[in-house]
Amino acid sequence: MALSFSCYASLNPQLQHKPITQSNKKCLEKVKNLVRANGVCLNTSSPHESLQKGNWVKLICGASFEDVVDIRNLSLVYTLAGVDCIDCAADGAVINAVNEGIEAARAITPVRRPWVMISVNDHEDLHFRKAQFDPNECPLDCSRPCENVCPANAISMNDTHGVLTERCYGCGRCFPVCPYDKIMEITYIRDAAATAELLKRGDVDAVEIHTSGRHISFFKELWDGLGDSVDCLKLVAVSLPDIGDSTIPAINMMYSVMEGNMSFFNLWQLDGRPMSGDIGRGATREAIAFAVRIAAAKDKPPGFLQLAGGTNAHTVDGLKKHRLFQTTTTSKDKNVHSSSPSSNALIGGVAYGGYARKIVGRTLNSMQALHGHACIEDHPEHLVMALTDALALVGPIKCYPSS
Ligand code: SF4
Ligand code: SF4
Question: Which residue is closest in CA terms to ligand 1's atom 7?
């Protein structure tokens, strides 16, 4: 607990841990029992082994999401649920928040430390943008559809800024609903030199490069800019959308840029329908269809495959339907193997973003309504609820007994 306290104070010096009451102790026991009963403590295999087995789970905090209090609590909850990796914005304060959440989880009960990954972009990308508008310019009689549609509670007309920048993760849902066209899109590109410094800090294990896959020169420029900072990494992921027949040539070209000095594992994140997992069942179809095609391709370069973009509670069923869940051959051709060693699962795992944040976010929001900004372990009745939801998402991939 002491570690959690001192770290959290760096997020918000005004916040102090609450004294532990008898009822809180009981709830924390319940948290430990949930972790124990699902065998999360016993899950001592490395994240790399999870990729090989096909049971890798990554939490995506969001390449642009920077609410450090939520990020800290999300990281705590999903570390207890046994994720292999936590992917966050390439920002020092955000990385601190993730690491603080992880250590706070490990102070509650001994669980494995997930890898910490930061996300960067080689050019303009949907994941690297913010919405912005001046609420003073909004007509007073506007029904504020922007507020209703925002999945991140990032729009507040009581706030002088309109958009709470640190909460906006660029999903874009507010842009088309404004009847007065007041909302601007602000895009940005993470600086390669600043990213290289973050990678050398020692508390980051992996980097993810978001690319359109259409301009190898942008990818190469970023890669060259990262220089030897990638040498200390465990994993480099490349996230790209489905660009049809150009996808395999694109990933082959990117692999040829990276392969000169590969002291790390590499992964291709197949971003089906970006930032849509919280929308519903249909959102996962594009991610599954993308994975089916790439898994069956014979001429792809080495690297684990992982789904993202539209992933949610229906994704595992979709993978099972296509016999891609923790299998080493495709259903169409038993002789077709991944270009990775044949003992590896065809699909290394799944990354959950908006959906993972939504299910735990419900509890974080209700905790905040009652207690303001707080450490979730100080309100373990909320931690029990959040962990139960997180285990329900992670469990089917990890094959936990409760799922
Ligand atoms: S709807 Fe999406 S883009 Fe708009 S403010 Fe909310 S998170 Fe940002
Ligand atoms: S919908 Fe447009 S005009 Fe209305 S409150 Fe939102 S930004 Fe302002």
Answer: 168
Predicted structure pTM score: 0.93
Pocket lining: 150 vs ligand 1, CB cutoff 6 Å: yes
pLDDT at 23: 78
**Ligand in closest contact with the CA of 162:** 2
CA distances from 252 to 5, 257, 258, 300, 336 (A): 46, 9, 10, 6, 18
Which pLDDT score, from 0 to 100, does residue 161 have? Answer: 82
Tokens 């809180």 belong to residue: 24
The Cα-based distances of 251 to 177, 214, 215, 266 in angstroms read 35, 10, 11, 11
- Closest ligand to residue 147's CA: 2
Burial category of 255 from C-beta neighbours within 10 Å (exposed 0-12, middle 13-18, buried 19 and up): middle
**CA-proximal residue: ligand 2, atom 3 (nearest):** 138
DSSP letter string over 87-104?
EEES-HHHHHHHHHHHHH
> Which among 190, 189, 223, 12 has a CA at the least distance from the CA of 100?
12
How close is the Cα of 147 to the center of ligand 2, in Å?
A: 8
Q: Given CATH 3.30.70.20, say whether it is the number of domain 129-187.
A: yes
Domain residue limits, the chain: 47-121+189-356, 129-187
170 lines ligand 1 (CB under 6 A): yes
Q: Is domain 47-121+189-356 classified as CATH 3.40.630.40?
A: no
Closest-CA residue to 50 (of 84, 77, 79): 84
Test site for ligand 2: of 149, 150, 178, 185, most ligand atoms within 8 A of the Cβ: 178
Instruction: Report the pLDDT value the prediction gives residue 163, as an integer from 0 to 100.
Output: 96
Q: Ligand 2 atom 5: the closest Cα is on which residue?
A: 144
Pick the residue whose CA is nearest to atom 8 on ligand 1: 168
Question: Per residue in 119-136, pLDDT tens?
Answer: 999 999 999 999 999 999
Q: Is 209 helix (H, G, I), strand (E, B) or coil?
A: strand
Helix, strand, or coil (residue 337)? strand
